[in-house]
């Protein structure tokens, strides 16, 4: 009974309609967000997130009394003091050729949430996945923000990575 109680405290969840979000206690993230709202209530933010196709989580900034609706996870880092992120629960996506640690597996599940050949919102080319939107400022930095295990790299004009299959 005691071990079950500890497990529930380490990974609390929030439910909204057909979605379940779990609290990423002890992890910091590199993300992009599609929207934000003034709130310190994670449940209200999760409800707003559920309104967006492609929402993968929320980031709570309690100092600014703001939550951000996450549409891309690019990196997940162990950070014992962090408790600001809730991620959409997704099935495990297998990474061929490598065993992933807990943080890497979480990121991989969120990057490939639709279980496609390329990460969600990336383009499938003949040989690779590409991310390109008319060279917006910061695209190179965006690309280099991905965790190194993903293999994402800047090729001089766009962000590329290997296709899953």
Automatic annotation (TrEMBL):
User: Which residues belong to the signal peptide in this entry?
Assistant: 1-16
- Tell me the keywords, alphabetical order: Signal
Name of the protein: C-type lectin domain-containing protein
């Amino acid at each position: 009974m005691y071990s079950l109680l500890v497990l529930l405290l380490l990974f609390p969840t929030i439910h909204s309609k057909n979605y379940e979000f779990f609290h990423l206690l002890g992890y910091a993230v590199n993300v992009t967000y599609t929207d934000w709202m003034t709130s310190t209530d994670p449940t209200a933010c999760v409800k707003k997130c559920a309104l967006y196709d492609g929402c993968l989580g929320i980031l709570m900034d309690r100092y600014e009394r703001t939550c951000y609706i996450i549409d891309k996870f690019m990196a997940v880092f162990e950070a014992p003091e962090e408790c600001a992120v809730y991620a959409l629960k997704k099935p495990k996506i297998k990474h061929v050729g490598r065993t992933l640690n807990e943080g890497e597996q979480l990121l991989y599940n969120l990057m490939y949430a639709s279980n496609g050949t390329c990460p969600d919102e990336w383009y499938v080319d003949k040989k690779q996945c590409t991310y390109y939107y008319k060279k917006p400022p910061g695209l190179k930095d965006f690309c280099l923000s991905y965790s190194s295990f993903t293999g994402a790299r800047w090729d001089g004009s766009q962000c590329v990575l290997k296709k899953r299959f």
